[in-house]
Amino acid sequence: MDSLLDPATAIENVNRGLAEAGYIASRQISTAVFLAQRLDKPILVEGPAGVGKTELAKSIAAWQNIELIRMQCYEGLDEAKALYEWKYAKQLLYTQILKDKLGEVIGQTDTLQAALNRLHDFGDIFFSRQFVEPRPLLQALEQKDGAVLLIDEIDKADAEFEAFLLEILSDYQITIPEIGRISAVTKPIVILTSNANRDLGDALKRRCIHLHIGFPEPRLEARIIETRVPGVAQELRKKIVAFVHEMRTLDLKKLPSVSETIDWARVLLLLHTSTLNHDVVRDTLNVLLKYEVDMETVTPQIGELIDKAERAFVPN
Amino acid sequence: MLSSRIENEQAANDLMLRFFRAARGVGCRISPPESMDAMSAVAAIGYSDKERLRDALLLTIAKTPDEKAALSECFDLFFKSPEPKNLEEAQSSDDDSSEGGQPDDGDGADAESGEEYGELAKLLMSGDRGAVASAMQAAADQAKLSEIRFFTQRGLFSSRILEAMGMERLESDIEAQQAAGNQPQRLMYARDGLREAVRDMVNDAITLYTREGTEALRNDILRNVPLNRLERQDIERTRKLVGEMARRLRDKYNKPRRKKNRGRLDTRKTIRRNASWGGIPFITVWKQKRVDKPKIIALCDVSGSVARVAEFLLLFLYSLNEAISDIHTYAFSGRLVDVSDILDGNAIDQAMQDVMKTVGYGSSDYGKSFEDFEDGFMSEVTNRTTVIILGDGRTNNLDPRTDILRRISERARRVIWLNPEPRFAWGTGDSEMPRYEPYCTFMRTCGTVRQLERVVVDLMEMDRN
Q1: Which of B45, B103, B137, B261 could form a disulfide with B56 if both were Cys (CB 3.0 to 4.6 A apart)?
Q2: A210, B46: Cβ pair inside 8 Å?
Q3: pTM score, two decimals?
C-alpha cells in the first residue's frame, strides 16, 4: 500500500509514524527510512554519541509494530554468537537416545554396505534446522512479520565481521554450510550504527544508505524535548535548547548531545526550575558535561551563555 | 523547472549520469552498484521536490560527512538553472516608460517591428525568464555541454550554445533595425545579458565536469614532485593525497595479525570452549601466533629543507593510526625533543608549527641530537622497535657521533634512514651518509609522495613475515 503513495505523502507518513513512537525525525531521517523500505536497503547511521541512532531503530520497530532484534557488536564477536550455533548438547543427547534405535534400523540388513546405505537414507539428521540455535541475525531472517534488526556499534566489531555481514545486508540471506541457504521470510529493516571509532570498509558502506545524524537544529531539538519531557514550559524549553546550542559552539572534549539535553530538561523539571539562572546551571552542569576539563571551560562562561541563550530566537 | 527537463526516462538517466560525473569530480567515489542505488532512489523520490532529491542523493552516494558537504555544494551548482540576465531590467524599464507615458524612440521601434523578429528575439522580448532558461538548457543539451573537458573550450561551447539558440537570427534582427535607423536598445541589452548568462553557464559546466580529469592528472604529478619544492597552493592537496594513501594502507594492514600455527591444538582453550557440553571437544581451538604491529620511533630532522618532508612522513605515519601499535616522535635540529604529545593531539599542520616552535629553527647538529636521544630516551628502544631517522645527514662538519647510532642499531629491531636528497648527493660536502650507512638496516631516498608511500608499504610488510 505504501508503494501507491506519492513520495511526499509517504515521507510525511514516516515522519508522523516515528513521531507517534516518540521520535522526532528530521526530513533527512524520514527520507532515509522511506528509501530503506522502498529499496530494501539497510541504513548505516553515523553520528556523535547520544543523537538518537539506536533510538531510531527502536522507534521504527514501535511504529511498525514489529519485533526489534538487537545485536550489540564488540571486539571478538563471531559467527557463533551472531548467526547460529549447533545445539551440541542436544545432538549429544539424541545420539545417546537413538543408539538403541540404531539396531532396529540396520537390523535386517545382511551386509555392511546395505547397512550403510540404509543409514544414508536418513540424511544428516543431526545437522538439520532442529539442531540450530538461532542467534540475532538468523532470528531476524526467521521473523514472519518482518523485524527491525539493529546492528549496534558495528565499528566496535572486527573488520572480518563486517565482511561476514555483507551477504545478509545485500541479499537478506545467510549460508549455513551443513544446511544451505536460508533466505528471509520477510525482509527485515536493518539499521547499523557506528560512532566512527574506526573507518568502515567500502564494501559495507556501498551496500547501505548512509545517514549522518548530527546535532539537531534548535527547532527540532525543542520538539524532541517537548515529546520526551512533556512537563517543561515552552519558555524554559526554548532557553534550554538555546543554551545547549550555544554550548556546542565551544571547544569541548565531549559536546553535549540530545540525550544530555533531555536529561538536563528532566533534571530542571524535577528541581521546579522556571528559568535559567547562574546557580541552577552551575549545579546541574554535570548532567550536560562528562569531563572535568569541560566543566572548567564552561563554568566561567555560564553567565555569558545564559545571556546568549536569552537573546537567541528559537522558532516554534 | 527541474521536472520540465525530465521528459522521459532516457533524459532522466542521462541527467543522473552527468551528475555522477560531476560528483566524482568533487571526490565522491561512486561505484556502479551505488549509482544504480542512487537511480532507484531518485526514481522512488521523483524530481518534483529539489530538497527531497538532494536528500536522496546525499543518502545514497555520499558516505562521509565531508562527502555530504561537497556533494551538496555540487548539487546546487549542478541543478542551478541558468539565470538569464538583463531581462527583468528590460521589462522594468518598459514598465517605467509606459507608466511615465513617455516612450523613448528605441522602445517605440521595438514595438512597431516586433512582428518581424525571429524566435529568439521574441522570446527575449517576452521577458519570460523561465522560458529563456529552458531554451538555454535545451541549447546546452544540444551542444553537449557536459562533454566539455578543458577550460580552453569555453569559447567553443559558448558559441555553440548561442548558435543553437538562434543567435544568428537575433543579430540580423538587430542589424535590420539599425539599418532602418532604429536603435533597438532593449534587444541589444537583452542580447548582452544572454551572452553573459551563457558564459556563466559554461563556466559552471567547467567547474562541474572538468574537475574529475584534472584531479587525476594533478594527483599524478604531485606524487612525483619533490616535497620540499612543493608550491604553497599544492600543499593542501598533497595532504589530502597522503591521507587517502594512508587510508588505503590502513585498511589493508589493520587486520588482526595472527598467523595460524597449523596443526597445533590449544588444549587449554579447547577445554574451556567446550566446557558447556561436558568437555567433549566439538569445537577445536588451534594455537595462533600473534604478529606484532610495527612499533616505531621516528627521529626527524626539522631543519630547513627537510622540514616539509618530515611533515608528510609524520602525516603518513600518524594517519595509519590503528595499523601501527605505537609511535614515538622526536624532532631535532640543534637539539632533540620529544614531540609525541604535540603530534598526538593536533591536526598535522598545527602540530608541525608547534613542533617548529619547540625545536627552533637552528642548523642541524646530528651528534648533539643523538646524544640527547641516548641520554633521555634510549630505554624506549627495544628489540621490537623500528627506528626511522629522517634527515639529510648534513652535520655542518660537526661530530656525527656514529657510535651512538651503532648503539641504537644494536638495541633496535632495525634502523631505517630516509634522506630526501637523491643518492648521488650522499657523501658530498658535509653529508655523512656513508659513515652512518653501516649501522642502518637500509637507507632510502624519500623525497616525493611516491617514494614515501613505497617506504611505508615496505615498513608494513616487513613485520608481517
Answers
A1: B45
A2: no
A3: 0.71
